[in-house]
Amino acid sequence: MDFGFSPRASELQDRMRSFMEQHVFPAEAVYDRQLAEGDNPHALPPVMTELKEKARAEGLWNLFMAHGDWGAGLTNLEYAPLAELAGRSIIGPEVFNCSAPDTGNMELLALYGTQEQQERWLKPLLDAEIRSCFAMTEPEVASSDARNIRTRITRDGDSYVVNGRKWYTSGILDPDCKLIILMGKTDPDAPTYRQQSMLLIPRDTPGVTVLRDLPMFGYTDRLGHGDVLFENVTVPVENILRGEGEGFALAQGRLGPGRMHYAMRAVGFAERALQLMCERATERTAFGGPLADQGVVREWIARSRIEIEQLRLLVLKSAWLMDTVGNAAARMEVAAIKVAALEVAHKVVDRAVQAHGAAGVSDDTVLARLYAITRALRIADGPDEVHLRTVARQELAKYRKTGPKSEHRTTDTKAGAA
């Protein structure tokens, strides 16, 4: 494994690190204030528009996109540390047009969209002229198992008609959201993994109703998490993505790079929390000295550093495998990083909250928000249990194919008893 970075990748890291320090971190408080003062909690604060213009002018734009000539042409390994740097701020990924759900949707359109679909949707998304959302999760069923999806996509002549209900459709309440990519069933009688399809639905199509905006641990997200009803929503057949029955395969393809992006942003969350914990420990006095002199606090800091370094290496390995042998061959590692990343990030954030005491559960720091995000993301994009199932199946397959190997068995009676 070679985790060395090209001169171009290293230079991009330096430029993004400088941009974060000079522009993004100082703008966080401005962003929050403008959001609070605005009439619409989902409208883009003016400071974000300014940040996007600066990022684009400096060439720090669409760095996640590795397909064709659409983006910067970086490998997964080259992009990974950039995702981490952006992830150190909650607003960071959006500044560089590298935030979910748009990143996954843009990858879908770049890989599988027709030229007409790319002209209509992909180019405006790459230019940040519009936003998009992804409608998959449903309230009535366990949507982590895509076979459970109930939303129907029915062919009616030259149109598809959609009926169903989705929730936690992130991004749909953003006034700039113009596209919904919806996962539904076109043929419930087809083979299990050929029943689902993806459909491109303009946001203003009649029959799309946002029933409510769902909070996340009490926080209202700027993009909004919509509970959405689709009633006889009709779009042309040309709006199918790739073709009928391709939905499950497209979802799997969308999630591979996306999970690496999530994982490296989680490393960024953890690094930010560790930084805040160290600053608090050196500045705060308790029981006759700085918190940094307390053994338990030192252990929190040491364990956090060790866990972050382990996590980063695992994610870089996964990115390297995706680049060298492909997403399918890296399936176990990609599943593993989704579990490990949010577990580590949440644990480090929790320690930082504890070190801050009452301040940690307030909105005076970013920690409470990071706590909510890292916990929620252990459910979003596939819950931990689904990914653990994948890892376990891959591991057990080694033994089911070849049988137990002697080096894996303990023949010493005492050792076995121990």
Automatic annotation (TrEMBL):
Occurrences of domain Acyl-CoA oxidase/dehydrogenase middle (ranges): 133-233
Source superkingdom: Bacteria
Membrane-spanning intervals of the chain: none
Obligatory cofactor(s): FAD
The Acyl-CoA dehydrogenase/oxidase N-terminal domain, residue ranges: 9-128
Alphabetical list of PANTHER family matching this protein: ACYL-COA DEHYDROGENASE FAMILY MEMBER 11, MEDIUM-CHAIN SPECIFIC ACYL-COA DEHYDROGENASE, MITOCHONDRIAL-RELATED
Subunit annotation: Homodimer.
Protein name per its UniProtKB record: Acyl-CoA dehydrogenase family protein
